[in-house]
């Protein structure tokens, strides 16, 4: 089992991050959405992580030709998507599995989606059940709740669906299905989840609009009448990955981090807004806005952080909550996270993982079904079990900057942020 030892920093740091991992959510979508065109897509800065490379490999198994030229990727879609001659391995990526469920439900043929031991225990019914209701033939363990999932592609029906969960993965799967349906479809969630799918598909020519009806906001999706335009995109840096170093700057006295070329999509930088409300100095500099607003984020230490309450816009910062818990652990007062039950079904039960790990570090917490509270104090050195969850591993590596830390099972970091420790070594000044 791979493990890492983090030593506490001996002073402040000033770090310019120009090689933060490319955005994972957008990279997954580039691989999948390129299959909706009939011409080659051009993608620069595609994330070279295990999960996104699995999504790219699945595109190739479905008939696409993938060409690599240094940092440039060309995905040439087949004339017709066809059956793969082997199972389709999504690795650790719920995004890949759920989005491919939506796409393949409307493609003629038989497909099997699987993943690693962690993904095979994550719930899939939230996608499978609405897809079945519009004609998809999907089965799997626990009546389709657990992978491996088998899909027999069929003609899909248009729909009007209100999702019980605010999830970008569920929404994206249903949008991909709607593009192949027999009419106009409508999708609604109680709070807007991350909207990369809508933005990117609209940029490719899909008719996806937001409409108000009786005071409710619906997403209207028109079925495709012809292939979409190909992508021509440079994937920005991932604000979720960059957020670990934002927290580092906010908790290490005198420190500053400048994160370059990151997406400034409002549904992706909510955690930065919370960190700012806690007292960190944060500036945003937009430089372009084509598929996504892109620019730089500057974070600097401005004194001890103040406690916060996080109970709104949870869908916009669900992935950053483990890292944000480190800021809460050193903040003055009692911080509270609520309405975050979705954390229970991530790569690990992140509520339990965060609480247990903070307790090991000497931080007082309370655990709730849908969140936790944290009383700020002094983080102590501890040995942390990541439970195979990359965000737990990286969050407590950042905590180690204050006290030192031992992190067990760090191989999971390779799935999303392969150069995390390389960047962290620039902060600590030593090779990790």
Would you kindly provide a written description of the structure presented here, covering whatever features stand out?
- It is a single chain.
- The protein is an alpha/beta fold.
- The protein has two domains: 3-22 and 236-428, Alpha-beta prism (UDP-n-acetylglucosamine1-carboxyvinyl-transferase, Chain); 24-234, Alpha-beta prism (UDP-n-acetylglucosamine1-carboxyvinyl-transferase, Chain), CATH 3.65.10.10.
- It is 30% helix and 26% strand.
- It has 13 helices and 23 strands.
- Strands 2-15-17-16 form a four-stranded mixed sheet. Strands 4-5-3-14 form a four-stranded mixed sheet, covered by helices on one side.
- β22 (383-385), α12 (390-403) and β23 form a beta-alpha-beta unit.
- α1 (24-33) runs parallel beside α2, α8 (239-251) packs parallel to α10 and α10 (321-330) runs parallel beside α12.
- The longest helix is centred in the C-terminal third of the chain and has 14 residues, at 390-403.
- The chain starts with a strand and ends with a helix.
Topology:
Layout: E1 3-6, E2 14-17, H1 24-33, E3 41-44, H2 50-61, E4 65-69, E5 72-76, E6 88-89, H3 94-104, E7 109-114, H4 125-133, E8 137-140, H5 141-144, E9 146-153, E10 160-162, H6 168-178, E11 185-188, H7 196-203, E12 208-213, E13 216-221, E14 232-234, H8 239-251, E15 256-263, H9 270-277, E16 281-289, E17 293-300, E18 309-310, H10 321-330, E19 334-337, H11 350-360, E20 364-368, E21 371-375, E22 383-385, H12 390-403, E23 405-408, H13 420-428
Parallel strand pairs: 2-15, 3-14, 6-7, 10-11, 18-19, 22-23
Antiparallel strand pairs: 1-23, 3-5, 4-5, 7-9, 8-9, 11-13, 12-13, 15-17, 16-17, 19-21, 20-21
Helix pairs in contact: 1-2, 1-3, 1-7, 3-6, 4-6, 8-10, 8-12, 10-11, 10-12
